[in-house]
Amino acid sequence: MKIAMIASEVSPFAKTGGLADVIGTLSVALERLGHEVCVIAPAYRCVLQSEFTLRESPIKLSVPVSNRQQEATVVQSTIGNGVPVYLIRADRYFDRESLYGTAAGDYSDNAERFVFFSRAALGLLRHQPADIIHCHDWQTALAIVFLKTQAARYLETTAAKTVFTIHNLGFQGIFRRHDWDLLNLDGALFTPQLLEFYGDINFLKGGLVFADKITTVSPSYAQEIMTPAQGFGLEGVVRQRAADLVGILNGVDYSQWSPWTDPFITCHYGENSLTVKDDCKRSLRRIFGLPDKEDTPVIAMISRLTAQKGFDLVEAIFDLVMQRDVQFVLLGNGDTRFEEFFGAAVKRYADRVGVRIAFDERLAHQIEAGADLFLMPSLYEPCGLNQMFSLKYGTIPIVRAVGGLKDTVQQCDTDAETGTGFVFEPYEAQTLLDAIDRSLQVFHNQTAWTALRRRAMAMDFSWERSAKRYVDLYRQLVN
Ligand code: ADP
Q1: What is the C-alpha to C-alpha distance for residues 427 and 317, in angstroms, rounded to an integer?
Q2: How remote is the CA of residue 17 from the centroid of ligand 1, in Å?
Q3: Closest residue by CA, ligand 1 atom 4
Q4: 235-256 average pLDDT score
Q5: pLDDT tens digits along 60-118
Q6: Does the CB atom of residue 18 touch ligand 1 within 6 A?
Q7: Contact 247, 278 (CB under 8 A)
Q8: Which position among 94, 175, 176, 395 has the lowest Cβ density within 10 Å, counted as fewest Cβ atoms?
Q9: Three-class secondary structure assignment of the chain
């Protein structure tokens, strides 16, 4: 099959979170299964200024946005074994400091930027017909709406079947009604059954309504988004499409995320050479200026700093955790409130806490390798990747039983003879603290701890199985 992935992020070119990892690795996995895959993404400043080999494509695009035509060019690169990546270049929209906005907030023209990108991607597919057009998240949902409602404009691609993947229902692309003209769609589509959402325009809802099939990134999350607690107001729409919705767990790119081959760490280890992990722990402590204390565990977090990731709970119990014999390291950026909290925490616990407010790929790998425990107390978590990375590094996850975390981490029993991590359920500070205390108890039981790490490292979430599930889904559509 010919499969076109349309997304606003793709690793290694542009990444703010798991979406980029998924697009990069799923595309390569699909190609390995024998399909012809291409990826279409924006050519942001970070792409154009990168060291990747980029080639100008002869394709020129003229894209209708409102009553204007916006011109774009296409630069090309590849990932994996030659999967083409088409990067749509329109500097007025994408030559900016970040992907979606700055500390001051989202870019005010995000509606226009992603209307443009969605239409440009379809324009490009005129030159490159596909059997399956697979769009991801609100930024590209409109490509499906345009294709389904304006078939005459896209004759070369109208036969294509569409799949829409929700990576996070918390981000829907909701814009004011006065942006409607940008879309060049029939006004009749602005109704609560279709694109309207309480008087506003909801891009993601368009994907939900018009896609042939909908997927999300874990089986549990597929259930959760049908409930008011996690549906963000779209639970009714999701329920209406339940027959076409499937949860497919994300995979891990073990060529990047394995402790024995990790390109970002120097001391490599496996299940039977766990003492080498102690070297990684020492390096990590050096990076953060923390003293070496043999029996003290390092608890780590790598995350966008937002309430979704459970930082309210972390804040609430932080001083209590620090009463235990632990060290804590955090890599992340995001909400000022949490950046300030951790900035202050470092000052209070200078020799016990290390914080890096940044997005740093290399450091993320070094933390996975060097830490003992990995904390993900998310309020909600569509899939989550870091807990899967952590398992492979023998860095035991402490997670809340929600979404993909629930689907990938098995609770340790009281003697820690089974299970791969520490799981708590109610979103409460005390239950999180209890889970941390359970983990610390097992940490100090060397035999149980080693066995637990080995079980964790043996878990396998490679992409191949998940990619085959996508192929099954595509086949249902194409046949
Ligand atoms: P989300 O997409 O909700 O942010 P995921 O767990 O699905 O969460 O994916 C997050 C990805 O982004 C992981 O690959 C993680 O390692 C990476 N990441 C998050 N924050 C940082 C950071 N500050 N520096 C480096 N990598 C980060």
Answers
A1: 13
A2: 4
A3: 17
A4: 96
A5: 999 999 999 999 999 999 999 999 999 999 999 999 999 999 888 999 999 999 999 99
A6: yes
A7: no
A8: 176
A9: CEEEEECCCECCCECCCHHHHHHHHHHHHHHHCCCEEEEEEECCHHHHCCCCCCEEEEEEEEEEECCEEEEEEEEEEEECCCEEEEEEECHHHHCCCCCCEECCEECCCHHHHHHHHHHHHHHHHCCCCCCEEEEEHHHHHHHHHHHHHCHHHHCCCCCCEEEEEECCCCCCCEECHHHHHHHCCCHHHCCCCCCEECCEEEHHHHHHHHCCEEEECCHHHHHHCCCHHHHCCCHHHHHHCHHHEEECCCCECCCCCCCCCCCCCCCCCCCCCCHHHHHHHHHHHHHHCCCCCCCCCEEEEEEEECHHHCHHHHHHHHHHHHCCCCEEEEEEEECHHHHHHHHHHHHHCCCCEEEEECCCHHHHHHHHHHCCEEEECCCCCCCCCHHHHHHHCCCEEEEECCHHHHHHCCECCCCCCCCCEEEECCCCHHHHHHHHHHHHHHHCCHHHHHHHHHHHHCCCCEHHHHHHHHHHHHHHHHC
Pull the structure tokens for residue 175. 């814009």
What residue owns the CA closest to ligand 1's atom 26?
361
Cβ–ligand 1 contact at 370 (below 6 Å): no
Dihedral sign, Cα of residue 422, residue 425, residue 428, residue 434: negative
Which ligand 1 atom is nearest residue 361's CA? 25
Q: Could you identify the residue written with the tokens 């930027």?
A: 113
Neighbouring CB atoms inside 10 A of 337's CB total 13
CB of 219 within 6 A of ligand 1: the answer is: no
CB distance 399 to 303 below 8 Å: no
- What does the pLDDT average to over 442-469? 96
Is 331 near ligand 1, meaning CB less than 6 Å away?
A: yes
388 lines ligand 1 (CB under 6 A): no
Determine which residue's CA is closest to atom 14 belonging to ligand 1.
18
- Residue-level pLDDT at 414: 81
Query: In terms of C-beta density within 10 A (0-12 exposed, 13-18 middle, 19 or more buried), how is residue 7 classed?
Result: buried
Whole-number Å distance, alpha carbon 103 to ligand 1 midpoint, is 18
Question: Which ligand 1 atom is at minimum distance from the Cα of 21?
Answer: 14
Backbone angle region of 62, left / alpha / beta, with phi > 0 → left and psi within -120 to 50 → alpha:
beta
Q: Which pLDDT belongs to residue 140?
A: 98
Q: What is the pLDDT of residue 266?
A: 86
CA-CA distances (angstroms) from residue 440 to 296, 394, 422?
9, 15, 10
Query: Is the CB of residue 123 below 6 angstroms from any atom belonging to ligand 1?
Result: no
Model confidence at 161: pLDDT above 90: yes
| pLDDT band at residue 413 under the 50/70/90 scheme | confident
| Pocket lining: 355 vs ligand 1, CB cutoff 6 Å | no
